[in-house]
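Sync notes, pocket subgroup
Present: LS, DG
LS reminded everyone that the earlier model was apo-only. Rerun requested with D-malate included. Inputs:
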Amino acid sequence: MKINSHYSALPAHYLFHDIDLRVQTYLSQHPDTRLLRMGIGDVTRPLPRVIVDAMQRAAEELAHEETFRGYCPENGYEWLRQTIIDHFFLPRGIPFHPDEVFISEGAGSDLGNLSDLFDRDNKVAIMDPTYPAYVDANIMAGREITLLPCLRENNFVPDLPAQPVDIIYLCFPNNPTGAVLTRDQLRLWVEYARRNHSLIIFDAAYEAHISSPDIPHSIYEIEGAREVAIEVHSFSKSAGFTSVRCGYVVVPFETGLQPLWMRRQCTKYNGTAYVSQRAAEATFTPEGQKGIRDNLCYYKNTASLILNGLREIGLEAYGGENAPYIWCRAPHGWNSWTFFDHLLNHCQVVSTPGVGFGRCGEGFVRFSAFANHPSAIEALHRIHAYLGLRP
Ligand code: MLT
């Protein structure tokens, strides 16, 4: 057998695995340390009761002959797909047919798997810094990648590609910089894709963290997007499902890709767990919505606490207003890993080194606001005590 030689172009470890190895090494040498974890964007708030009740009921159904279920449909139960359309898209004036919505085990898998639809001979544009899965999936497929720099100089919003590209990955609110696009800015991308017959893969995983009314939650809020965009959603970052696992992809008929994605899923995916789909459905009940809103409010408060706290210390920090991530420039001209190591070794704070998201992330670290509030306060105290930049 011959292995897929493109794997040799990947970094040896996936970013969060790499960080975990460093953290485990530190803990083995300092077993009594209380680490404050603000690295991976993993939720910390418990699920609202109504969601847990829905999962318990669903699990109980599986214990009885009359209500037992076998395989779930590959694209998810229609009652969940219709619920998503009714509660998320229709209130924004965006109609979809349930067959355009595909339930999955989460956005991370979808963002990697979508790569299956496209020929190797496509030029792909990806923001830099970026969520590593887009780059990794396209490296695995052997595609040519154009990186779109997102720097302080352009407010972390990429310029349109100088040369035509076929596929564009956009993530807004952005992971890792926390940047957002206004409707007018997003419209430029939709117009670009229409002009160049490109496809946008729009990662909307963090839309629930938007606070400002002028920021779009879905690319389909922009006229003409349904012909040129696939959109990926996650219940992890909106409803705390990082362990439950559930997300969905919207593949509009107008893209011409809906039958291909259905075909791909039928072959390679056996459906999302029934219990998870019932949990996702419960997020749209009035109690579910209230519980989720309360948790989001908690994270948003943590985000502004971190953003303001870092700035008060005298650090340069961005994002955090419509996103759960704060993008912080390393002081003293340190690079990302040096700042990460200082934070780990001297403050016992885990961050994510910006360069792990791409070369343009060098010199930054990312803090996740999914941490709990007291940990964030303590982390800021420790960072201030160690760096002592500004009283
Ligand atoms: C992150 O920290 O960037 C995310 O939590 C990773 C993910 O969603 O897979």
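DG: The pocket of D-malate is lined by residues 40-42, 108, 131, 175 (CB under 6 Å).
LS: The two ends are 62 Å apart (CA to CA).
Action: DG to write up.
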